[in-house]
Every structure is written in structure tokens, then in C-alpha cells.
Amino acid sequence: MPDFSLWDIVRNLLLACRWTVGLSALAFAGGASVGLLLLLLRLAFPKALDWPIAGFVQLFQGIPLLVQFFLAYYGLGLVGIQTSPWVAASLGLTLYASAFLCDIWRGCVRAVARGQWEASASLGLRWHEQLLFVILPQALRIALPPTVGFLVQLIKGTALASVIGFMELTRVGKTLANATLSPFLVFGFVALFYFALCYPVSRAARALERKMHARH
Amino acid sequence: MPIELDFGAVLADWPLLLRGVAWTVALTLGALLAGSALGIVCAWVRARNLGARQAPFWLQHGVAAYVELVRNTPFIVQLFFIFFGLPAAGVRLSAEAASLLAMVLNLGAYATEIIRAGLESAHPGQAEAALCLGLSTRQTFVRVLLPPALQRVWPSLVGQVVIVMLGSSVCGQISTPELSYAADLIQSRNFRSFEAFIVVGLAYLLLSLLLRQGLNRLATLWLGPGRHA
Q1: A75-92 burial, b for 16+ CB within 10 Å, e for fewer?
Q2: Backbone CA torsion sign across B91, B93, B97, B102
């Protein structure tokens, strides 16, 4: 059996962080695009699409992310798509993030005073102009702190991709723990690396929130 | 290629599913009780406006470190650390005990922050008034400060308990026989993986709705009608 020095463990875990960060970034980009699309659809067609999208959001908030990963993994296989952990993990996380972000951002749009819609309508702006030039710029400011806060949840969520075989920080940690027979050390380091990734983001979210409250 | 779904094969294993539901519910209730108790104690240490003497410096910082550490690491890593890591330090736990401990510690950290926010939103004069009337520090906290704080943050607390319940699906990874472990077991017998996880996913959805309902009703009974439901 090869000997692992402390540096070997740390180096391998550091390299594994790339995949955690990469998957988080991909999931955030995908989730933000799909979430924004869902939000716009929900705002544009409040009668027809409100409850289907609300149901979608409820569904993905009420089913464990782990089960969503399994569903994405086996579901893609069922329709005949050759699944790789990459595809299944990004699909699962994208749907998960889109549900949460759609919900968060909807709250932010609703937090913009109703009078803003009415005022811009009475100024002759069309619906899409009202949304684009009046409502969204204000909602964006409100949305920033909770969105950054959700990013922490998303980074932690990528750890579950280890279960469907995605080689990120947790998975590499588990492999290393088995190979080195020192799980205490390895999982301690894994936790520290996650902390190093998430803590600055948490702090940023809190600082943004404080700034928001100071302004109001 | 037509897709054939066979839910009958999954539902035929209903005793396994039922055992999974029982374990998930039991773990969640255990975490709910112990985790909220832990959260209340830690929130008492952390809150600033209780009008009482502050907890010792080292305790405040210890609690702050615990809360930040738990909130910024994934649950699955916490679970692996407790189940695989702690035996190396001489603490050997069964899968079920490790799952419960991880869930209690996880919920405790989030509950601390939630309850603290509720405590700190009260006017400092409340604690001062209670102390002036001759209530002890403990009476002031338990009878005057805590109930309205819990009432204010109840929705967030319920949301967090639901998140912990959903998170318990990870405990199957260390062979705790909860709901998602049941799905894994069933699909390894009959290869109906997609159907198994659909059934279990819907079961989680139902459980989270029931849990939310139950806890909201409990709050009305216990804390009186208020803003929580």
C-alpha cells in the first residue's frame, strides 16, 4: 500500500475543490437561468402558469436533494441517455437551484411596492418596460443578499453529488479516508475546506444584508 | 423504446418502506426535541439583550464557532466525520446513533441563530421589567423572553426542521434504515430504481407537508394563536 503523507492528503483534497467549485458554478448558472425564466413566465402569465410553477417549486423544495440526484441519474438512463455523474449532478442541482431561486426572487419582486407598477403603467410604459426598467432594478438590490446566502446552500448541496459517483471534495475525501485509514484527519480536512469555501460567502451575504438595512 | 414503469414491484415491498418512514419520523422527532433544546440553550448564551449577566467569554466564542462550523459545512460531511472519523478518536457509535447525533448538532446550530434572532428582536426593557418585578434570571428567560421569541420565529424554525427531515435521507449512506435506504434496498432487489425513488420522493413530500401542518398546529396549542401559523 502506498504511503500517504499529510501533504498528499491536503494536495488531493485541494485538487478536488476544483470540482466542487466548478459544479457549484455550473449549477448556479443553470439554476439562475432556469429560475429567472420560471419567474418571468410566472409574472407574465399569472393566471395560467402560477399554480404549475408554484407546484414545481413546492415539489423540489419538498423532496430531498439526494433523491432528486437519484431521480436525475436513473431517469436520464430510463429515457436512453447515457448518464455520466457530471450530467446527472448538474441537472439535479440546476432544477434544485432554479426552484429555490425562483421562489426567492419572486419574493423580491413582490417586495417592490405595488405603486411602482401602477406609477410606471400610468406613465405609459408597457408591461415588459415596467418590469425591465422599473421593477427588476429595484428587486435586484433586494435579491442580492438572499441569493448570495443561497449560494452557500448550493455549495453544500454539491457534496451530495458524491453519492452518485461525482468525484468532488466529499467523494475524494471518502476515497482517501479508505486508502489512508485515517478518517478523522481526512474528514476533518474535508470539513475545513468546505468551511473555507462557504464562510467567506456567508460573511458576504451577512454584510450585504446589513448594508441593505442601513440604507432603508 | 417505450418506457415501462412498474410501481407495483416497488409497492410490494411495503414493509421496508414502512420501516423507512418510521425511522425517518423517529430520527426527525428526536432531532426536533434535542436540537431545539440545544438551540434554546445556545441562543441564551449568544443573545445580547437578556438583561442578565452574560455567559463567560469562552462559552460565547465556543458556541459561535460551533454555529459557524456547522452552518458552513455540508451535512453529509458532518455525518461522515461522526460515523467514520470519531471511532479513530475512540468514540464508536452505531449508524443510527451517529445519524441522530449529526441531525441534533445540525438542527441545534441553525435553531441557535433562528431563536437568537427572535430573542434579540424583543425590546430590552422587557427583560429589565421582569427582573425589576423580582423574577429570577431563569424565570425571566423561560417565562418572559422565550415564549414570544419562539412565537415570532416559529415559521423559520418549522422550515428548518423540514430541511433537517429532508436531509436525513443522507443517513441511508451509512446504512441507517431510513426512507431513502429503503429505496436503495428495493431497487437493488428488483432494479426498479426510478420507480423506487419516485415513490420515496413522494413519501418525503407528504411527510414534509404533514410535519409542517403538525408543527403549526402544535404552536397554536402551545404558544396560543399568533403570527406563527
Answers
A1: bbebeeeebebbebbbbb
A2: positive
Consecutive 10-residue runs of chain B (229 residues): their mean pLDDT?
A: 75 90 97 97 85 78 96 97 92 95 97 94 88 90 91 94 96 94 89 89 95 91 65
Q: How far is CA A186 from CA A25, B75, B88, B136, in A?
A: 25, 16, 11, 47
Task: Report the alpha-carbon distance of residue B52 to residue B56 in Å, rounded.
Answer: 12
Domain CATH code at residue B88: 1.10.3720.10
Please tell me if residue B190 touches chain A, with a CB cutoff of 8 Å: no
Domain total of chain B:
1
* pLDDT > 90 in chain A, percent: 79
Give me the residues of A, 127-186, that contact B with CB < 8 A.
152, 156-160, 162-163, 170, 173-174, 177, 182-186
The stretch A160-175 carries a mean pLDDT of 93
Cβ contacts (< 8 Å) between B73 and chain A: which residues?
156, 191, 194-195, 198
Nearest CB partner across the interface for A163, out of B1, B68, B173 = B173
Residue of A75, A174, A177 lying closest to B194 (CB–CB): A75
Residue B180: give the domain boundaries.
7-223
- Mutation target to probe the A interface, by most A beta carbons within 10 A, among B78, B81, B175 is B81
CA gap B193, B190 in Å, rounded: 8
The residues, ordered by sequence, that sit 6+ positions from B119 with a Cβ below 8 Å of its Cβ are: B43, B44, B47, B49, B50, B145, B146, B149
SS3 of B81, please? helix
Q: What is the pLDDT of residue A67?
A: 95
Contact B208, B163 (CB under 8 A): no
Interface confidence, given as ipTM, is 0.90
pLDDT score of B181: 93
CA-based max dimension of chain B: 78
What is the pLDDT at residue A18? Answer: 94
The 10 Å Cβ neighbour count of residue B98 is 24
Q: Supply B164's cell numbers.
A: 433537517
pTM of the model: 0.91
pLDDT the model gives residue B211: 95
Q: Do A191 and B204 touch (CB under 8 A)?
A: no
Ordered domains of chain A (ranges, CATH): 6-215 (1.10.3720.10)
- What's the confidence (pLDDT) of residue A76? 87
Q: Which residues of A touch B81 (CB under 8 A)?
A: 183-184, 187-188, 190-191
